[in-house]
Each structure stands twice: as C-alpha cells, then as structure tokens.
C-alpha cells in the first residue's frame, strides 16, 4: 500500500511535468480516499485535461510508472469538453466522492440539482436490482471462488446505491461504509453494509464463503428485497 503523504505530492509533480497547464484538475477517488484500501486496491485518480488522446493516456501511463506503485494508478481520465457534457445524474456522487488535489472540479462540471440526484439514485438501484438477479441466475455456473467474487462486487455496488439513496433521504453525502453504517437504521441495510466492509468476506470466514450456499443465498435475498422496495419507494421526480 502507498503512503499518501509522500505519494500525493510526487504524483502531482509527475503529472504536472507530463502535461503542464493542460492538467486542469487532479484528485483522488475510491478506496484510498475512503480509508478502505487493501494491498490489492487500485489508486483511483481523477485526471482532467484540456483534451485526452490515446497518446495522452500513454503519457499518463509512463508518468505513473515512474513512481512507486504507480502501476496501480487508474481511475477517471477525461477531457474538458467530455466532462462538461457528462450526464447530470452521475455528478453528485462523482463530485462529492473526489478529493481535489489541483484545480477546481466544480467549475468544470455542468450544473446539476435535486432532480438529477434523485434520478441518479433510481438508476443506481435499478441497475443493482438487474445485476443481483442476473448474477444469481449465472453464479451456479461459476466456480466457488468466482461465486464469492461476484457477490463481493454486488455488495460493493450496494454501498454506492445506498450512499446516493441516503443522500436523497437526508440531503447528506456520507463518504465511507463505516460512516454510513452508523447512519443506517434499517437492519437489512446494516447487514449488507457489514458484509461490504473491506476485508469482510460475504459470510463468516473465507472458507465458509466457498462452501456455505445458504449464507450467500440469504445475502442475495436481502439485496434483491432491498432493491425492490427501495426502487418502488424512491420519488420519480
């Protein structure tokens, strides 16, 4: 894992040397920002340039690979015009889930408001509902390790869906799983969040995850039920 206190200024220097004033905004997103990173976590950077070509992606790749653990640096890379045209329903979580290191992200975004946030919540929950059902139907064809990974991905998606649903309910953006767990009062939401925590397998132990189909089926049921009732209850506009 990286030490952000030393890695952050090194990354800013490397990318400024690579792009100069073309680098309009740089920030951090993802598990490192939330304090949930593990040894296998990517480093999710936000990089906004005046424009982005394939050559620019090669330049970004080379700049990051000049740094310790830079090969883990991925994330969101975008040109100014593309960001200005980004769908508004994604912008609430995008902006609030970014720690800006350089530049002014808000000034680069199109306007968005409450209707967009509510639409974002409905789309997020609808997509998760579809993926829960789809994954459940296909998981029996997977090996045990792949089944556990598939459920882990759904639980990660649940966190992001609950995060924006909570914002619609309360007007508050809660950045981490641990903080959201302290805010949640619904017991199903709390159960699913606990299983979505870093280093927490979706059942009591890694071994039991592989062999206890009942535990996995229970979590699938909770996910499906939560998506169903939440989607129906969210305001349509």
Automatic annotation (TrEMBL):
Keywords: Transferase. Residues 27-53 form the Polymerase nucleotidyl transferase domain. It comes from Bifidobacterium pullorum subsp. saeculare DSM 6531 = LMG 14934. The keyword Endoplasmic reticulum does not apply. Gene3D superfamilies: Beta Polymerase, domain 2 (3.30.460.10). This is Nucleotidyltransferase domain-containing protein. SUPFAM superfamilies: Nucleotidyltransferase. One of its GO terms (molecular function) is nucleotidyltransferase activity. InterPro entries: NT_sf, Polymerase_NTP_transf_dom.
